[in-house]
Amino acid sequence: MSLLEVKDLSFSYRAAKEVLRGINFSIGAGEHTALVGPNGSGKSTLLALLSGYLSPSSGDVYLEGQRVRGFSFRERARRITVLPQNAAIPFPFTCFETVLMGLYPFGACFSPPGEQSLSLAEDLMRETHVWEYAEKNVNEISGGEFQRVMCTRALVQALAGIEEGSRRLLLLDEPFSELDIASRVTMMKLLNRKAAEYGVTVIGVHHDLNIAARFAGRVLALQNGCLAADGKPGEVFTLPLFAGVFHVKAEILPGKGFIFTDSLEAKA
Q1: Which of 22, 29, 27 is nearest to 7 (CA)?
Q2: What is the distance between the alpha carbons of residues 62 and 68, in angstroms, rounded to a whole number?
Q3: Which residues sit opposite 245 in a β-bridge?
Q4: From residue 76, how far is each of 53, 66, 170, 186, 224 by CA, in Å?
Q5: What pLDDT, in 10s, does the model give residues 173-226?
Q6: What is the C-alpha end-to-end distance of the chain, expressed in Å?
Q7: What is the pTM of this model?
């Protein structure tokens, strides 16, 4: 049985035009899937539906055979970790306190985290290179540093208390947009390594198609609210897809990536 199943999923905001329509796919445990598409194609909305934050207009989302919206909020938080686009922390927590928020779904209210959980948080902060400013105010660090802190919090939530045979889903919406390319590659390598080690399923929205091709094993491409392509990166990322979905001319360098040479959008 697939970990995640999406069946005839459609969604619209009130009486507006449908944002998503007739989406169908299933994802197995441990897969790393990149969700790509131009602006306004429905990527962030789809993640919100997968997490249960939004309710579909029609169709449904199932996690291990159960409706995602049927889980309690706390149970969803234990099974599904979400790192949203433009995440914010409005209060002056330290970076360490912010990372520890990933443990909240697994402990009693107001109870301090145990030694194992604290060790996990510290280890991950060291691996993501944010431990050095653990005591800094999270609102007084750079945008790239903040994204690494938030990604560390998401990893803590996805990996905390995980037991053999249990399954977790990690949803990422443009998690590394503020990072330089070296940091982006480092974080994607860490993400893949931890996901493989713990058996976590990852679905990430990416605008950097080279990053998606390099680190994801599967790609879902959206266009105008519909699923335009689904397959391995080498099957999805073709010249017709770049032209038809992203409206760009491209060169494909086998084993190296893509170079985008011109826009096909109408020029003023």
Answers
A1: 22
A2: 5
A3: none
A4: 10, 11, 11, 29, 29
A5: 998 988 989 999 999 999 999 999 999 999 999 999 999 999 999 999 999 999
A6: 50
A7: 0.93
DSSP the chain: --SEEEEEEEE-STTSPPSEEEEEEEE-TT-EEEEE-STTSSHHHHHHHHHTSS--SEEEEEETTEEGGGS-HHHHHHHEEEE-TT----S--BHHHHHHGGGGGGS-TTPPPPHHHHHHHHHHHHHTT-GGGTTSBGGGS-HHHHHHHHHHHHHHHHHTT--TT---EEEEESTTTTS-HHHHHHHHHHHHHHHHHHT-EEEEE-S-HHHHHHH-SEEEEEETTEEEEEE-HHHH--HHHHHHTS-EEEEEETTTEEEEEEE-SPP-
Which amino acid belongs to residue 228? A
Report the C-alpha gap between 99 and 121 in whole angstroms: 7
CA of 118: how far to CAs of 121, 215, 242, in Å?
5, 29, 45
**Structural tokens at position 84:** 């949203």
pLDDT per residue as tens digits for the range 157-173 = 999 978 766 789 999 99
153 is written with which tokens?
């919090």
